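Curious: can you check?
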Amino acid sequence: MYQRLHWYVIIYLVCFIFNDGNFLWLLLVLAMLGLFMHYCFRFTNLFIASLILFAFLAYFQIPSLEISKPLNTSSQTLQGTIVSMIEEQSQFLRFTLETADEMLVQVYLYPSTDQSQPNIDIFRTGASCKLTGKFETIPTKRNPGQFDYKYYLASQGIHYQFVIEPTFESDCEGQSFLQNVYDARKKHLSHMKERLSTFTFSWYAALLFGDRQYLDEEVVSLFQDWNLSHLLAISGLHVGFIIAITYFLLLFLYRITLERAQLLVVCLLILYPLMASGAASVWRASLLAIVLIAIHKSPVKFAITDSLSIVFLFMVLFHSYSIYSLAFQFSFMVTFAIILSRKVIAGSLNYIWIVLRISLVSMLIILPLQLLHFYQFQPLSVLLNLIIIPYFTVIVMPFLLFILCLSFLPNVLSLADRLFSELHYVMIENIHIINDWVSVPWVTGEFPTEFILPYYCLMCGMLYFLEKQQFMKSFCLSMALVTLLVIINIKPYLNEYGYVTMLDIGQGDAIVVELPYRKRVIIIDAAGTMSADFSSPSSKNFDQIIDPFLKSKGITEIDAVIVSHADHDHIGSVSDILKHYNVQAIITSPFFDQTKLAEWRNISQADFITVESGDQFLIDKQSFQVMSPISDLSDSNENSLVMKTVFGKLTWLFTGDIGEKGETALVRQFPFEKIDVLKVAHHGSSTSSSKNYLDTIQPELALISVGVNNRYGHPDQEVVDRLTAHGVQILRTDINGAIIYKFSSDSGTVSTYLP
């Protein structure tokens, strides 16, 4: 039975997949699995019974992501024990606290300019604390494609967020042994930060201690785009080097016995994950090394897959929420795939082919999961790995470990620092050049879950026939696999429905229009946001909302960006869109800010089109009637571009930020027919949506794009009351999240992203 431990991993994963489904499905899967094993493999009844028993235990052991216990979130105090490392960032201090009833709470402390801020040194892992502050709502996902922070915390068993009030005294006492390890880590990093250049230290901290906060965000993004993030995460490569160097030092320099060396290595492998931020990949690599050392000393021999299975089961049973971690899933999937495909990989003794096959297998095994969460992959990363993996293996990791060994030799350390900086900087710049010249990311959108099983069946069949050297069958299945990905990519172009999505962008406007069969993609305004201190523009809206939404839809090209006026809450993300997407046309009014247009012309080769009142323009066959501005009203808001169009037989009116003055001119100039859907002007400000205006256009549905708890008090209650008095249904992004209108040539339905 000990040689079949990987079956327990399979059973656990089956239970994980069906954990939120119907329990009868689980029983059916178990029954079919039992019959399959009994008749095909002649496994003993005892083994089958043990699998089924483990399945029931695993099913009930897998934690639910729902909040299971109530907590008094109205209380201004919080008591419990700190159970995580204290994470210090420039913008906040963060840790996890466990209450007496075993609830986990994410605790934040933000910097304060006054003298009342508590001493942060009192926050220690293992300390018992009484904190004063307030519970805050954990931000949830409000748009398609957006990162779900609430789900992310729930996947770690955390359902509450508490912010410490700096003006009150917090009380913490004691600490655990882990704090000594974290103190040693912090002290060493501080020591190296003073002695290394900023560039070298950023890589030193990231690759040896799992602290990526010092890496340039552009570099992190570059590695993510090229599917090279695994090189920034501590994994088997790093642990293997550490083990090799430790063995060399202990056996050849210090001349101790092999048994003592193995004991010291095991101790190091227990401490190192704690020093390296406790990432799932480093725990997997370290525990696997410990298991292999233990098995080597044992008379019972295990296959490498079963050794890895022991590590898997230990990690999910010790910390049940591990199964929800993407890093955990990626790490085990890639490791299992490489081990099970070792005959395919080693089929050629040519080094280049071996690296190519490892890269290909690694990419294929995680591709559905990657597309499910990140919506794109870089096919050429397989080729880039031919250079990058050997470079990191032969040069970067040994160099950084050499720097670690020289940490207390300032003169030699300075020379090593300079050599590493010059060498590694050139390599990173070359990756940037490759990215600029040959980057062809394949943006597929979100991977359909119903395609996951067919994908893995085709992939396993392809690798099976490749191992059997039946190359024609393997080639045919590989073509079927590519065809499956192509089908996923072209699905939007076969969809008879179009979509109008008003994104919940905060205090601003951003509307994305997809015409049926994806004939054209149009963006109407794209709000930006400001930095936390409101001192400078920020790309947060683009990075966290607009870009993920477009990628989740598989959109890579924008046919037109229509901008109503030049206020930052309507155009702040346009520059980022022009930099990252192929935009065909930018449409503005005659009174749009010329300075901003000149800036955009330097970024993009798009056609710049000016439309004015009375014009009618077509995007494909979609007609837009321009109604305003009629004349220059010497005000950015009043000069907003106002357009009327029809989606699915419903008439829409897009109004920018016009006020009562613009509304009066609009009503006077055009004899309005009834409007079905009104994009309420100026986020529901009291200066807009006058009674006379509403009497004239008579909308049935009003959409208000407005930020949650915004400082302007939008929408104004008088506006809401006027709309209600006119019998208008109101949908607001601050309450409903993104608002989605799905339409065909003759019908349409409106839905909200938040329930």
The two ends are 48 Å apart (CA to CA). The chain has 26 helices and 28 strands. The first strand starts at residue 77 and ends at 82.
